[in-house]
Amino acid sequence: MTIHAISIEAPVKRKGAMRALAGVRTAAGVLLLALAIPALAQEAPDALVKRVSQEALQIIKTDPKVQAGDQARIRDLIETKLTPHFDIDRMTALAAGRAYRSATPEQKKRLGEEFKTLLIRTYSSALNQYRDQTIDYKPLRADPNATDVIVRTEVQKAGGSPVQMDYSMQKGASGWKAYDVVVGGVSLVTNYRDEFNGTIQASGVDGLVKLLSDKNKGGAAK
Amino acid sequence: MNDVKGAPTISRAAAMLSCIALLAGCAAAPSRDDPFEPMNRAAYAVHEVVDGNIVKPIAQAYVDYAPRLFQKGISNFFGNIDDLFSFINGVLQNKPEKAGHDLGRVITNTGFGLLGLIDIASEAGIPKGNEDFGQTFGYWGIPQGPYLFIPLLGPTTVRDGTGWVIRAYTTPIGYIPDVPTRNILWGIGYLNERAQALQAESILDQASLDRYTFLRRAYLQRRQYLVFDGAPPPPKDDDE
Questions:
Q1: What is the pLDDT of residues B122-170, one digit of tens each?
Q2: What is the chain A residue with the closest CA to B228?
Q3: What ipTM was assigned to the predicted interfaces of this complex?
Q4: Phi and psi (nearest 5°) for B29?
Q5: Chain A residues interacting with chain B (CB cutoff of 8 angstroms)
Q6: A61 vs A7, A49, A133, CA distance in Å?
């Protein structure tokens, strides 16, 4: 499994670093730094999901500004903590379907930006709803060399049936990124496909961008 | 809802509506799953007004102000009836292990948990099933049929709605001889159900561009997932 592969690898590399330390201190510093970067990028997908969701939950539970509903603070946290771990381009492409291919680069960029905001706000509000509940992380069942895996988690509600929350993840140049979240069997990306299709048919990609942007500015859904 | 047939009246109306829709629905075919979309959207609009102004505020007040222990007891009591139906449907789907768990839960909670008010079985770690008639029909290979939105009851399909009607006619609540008691239980059961949907609803509000469309796809995805016990076949994608 992926975790094992990494934990075996890391000590070997560190041993190399130790030897360097004994020699030239500065060189060792540089070497350690160089080793740390790939180690971070190679964080196993299940470990990544666990770390990021726990961090997010922790912030939701403890940050006074977030609890007071400070939008700027929430947005800032989302940008720095959550967004880097989602493959927004892929999600947008999946949700927008055929129309995405014929969209201009400018349209794709704006659509991605707005969709990102909506997704992350939705994800945070879902996490917030389940803040008092515990998350179980299921062991990852995947080939160590797999580049596309599903990380399964289970949100345990006190006294209720648990809700499955699964993350579809793909490995890219900058490590693992989620491209779909499936809650209780409901795929977020699939769900948006219907909405996007309808709007694109009626008012084009620009119409969809405008609708998303209105929604993100706080206009209530109708 | 003034007698045992009170609740099913709604679905009879639904059945009638869908007959009308069958005649009228040919005008537009917006979605494969939702051939009656214009009618459903009208029903949804009615639902929004009635639910939003009356039912939802009551359900919210219930969640906010009713004693936690009371809410818990109510939710357990109706959960016990769910377990009974989960057992029956586990048998109908030839899932002896699941059915066994559910039967064990019903016996434990009915016998030792004050007719289900206390969920001892969960404390004891007996897993709770969630089978229902709609899932059984799906398991048997019956297609879901057209999507339907019924005011005050929410999203369903012809298949799931049929399952709902069977349950409404067979639930033990309907066999309680004292009419006022029975009616109160119908009412509380409805409130309990509505209250439990509030959380998911707030996420839906945040997530959706068009609530009708979003709810429809979420409902259909969820049902498909349940029919296949969490491992539905991958959806047929025409493109990415």
A1: 888 898 999 999 999 999 999 999 999 999 999 999 999 999 999 999 9
A2: A185
A3: 0.75
A4: -125, 75
A5: 93-94, 97-98, 101, 118, 121-122, 125-126, 129, 159, 161, 164, 184-188, 190-191, 193-195, 198-199, 211-212, 215, 220-222
A6: 31, 18, 11
